[in-house]
What does this fold into?
Amino acid sequence: MNLSGMPQAETVEHHVTNDGFYPDLNVAEFVDNYAVASPYAGNIDMIVQKLSLAIVSVNKDLTIYRRNNWLNINALADVPSEKVDKESHLVMLYKHAVFSLAKANLLVSSLGETHRDKASVNALENIDSQKHWIRQSNDAIFQIVQMSRTLGVELIWVKASYSF
It folds into this structure.
């Protein structure tokens, strides 16, 4: 069971190819680690679409930072960073940013299809909300670019890219 009370989806082995600098993403890792419910994850095409759109968005948000700081580096995994279990902190944060945004987008597209009454939607949103996952994605992006939550102009720029 996941946070919404729905059965967890079965793991699907499929990779979404990224641009070469940022890592390719595993659909199974997303489904398993981000509690994607089986009614939503049963559609691999939808999952790949949501992950692809999230990749485009996060990559776009990191474009200027990448150009200014990682221009001569071939892959995010090659950027000097501490590691946890042999994985770069930056790669972990990147995946979290993308997976969180994909989860938020998946929740938006799924609620209308499966929850017709307002009480069900409100109950689900209290547990597993789009706003929560967008905050998670933004926080990971902030950490990647080493921004403090108290910065003004930079915070407004990143937040503006996720206007609701």
Q: What stands out?
A: The chain has eight helices and four strands. Residues 111-115, 147-157 have pLDDT under 50 and may be disordered.
